[in-house]
Amino acid sequence: MSQASCRDFDPELWFPFSPLSKDGQFALAVCAGCPVSEQCLARAERHGVRHGIWGGQWMENKRVADLDQDALRAAVRSARDAGWGQALIARHLRLPHQSVARLLREIGR
Ligand code: SF4
Question: What is the chain's Cα-based Rg?
Fold first, then answer.
């Protein structure tokens, strides 16, 4: 798609380990301003894509709970650095509040 806003960026940015990571947040921001996002998402859904960010949507079917502890800590750190509170992180990652509280304690301030 010649109008794709991502055309001049490294495609790897659209395949982050988490949509909350720095790369994931960047890709989602680019998608938010893309004039062909609806077509992009429709095409990804039509082809059953299950990896990466397409049309501003995180297509992974990998459950956050399946991430290893290092990846989980990195996701929580990215979310915290983006200004997200504990409740929002817990809801978005579908984790118990106690788990998020423990991860936040582990990564420190
Ligand atoms: S919506 Fe699709 S085409 Fe547009 S920037 Fe995102 S991934 Fe690229």
Answer: 15
**6 — pLDDT class (breaks 50, 70, 90):** very high
Residue 61 main-chain phi, psi, to 5 deg: -100, 5
Domain ranges of the chain: 11-58, 64-107
Query: Which amino acid is present at 18?
Result: S
DSSP per-residue letters across 28-70: HHHHHT-TTHHHHHHHHHHTT--SSEETTEE---S-GGGS-HH
Can you tell me which atom of ligand 1 is nearest the CA of 37? 1
**Which mutation among 9, 10, 14, 59 tests ligand 1's pocket best, with the greatest number of atoms within 8 A of CB?**
14
Specify the pTM: 0.62
**SS3 label, residue 16:** coil
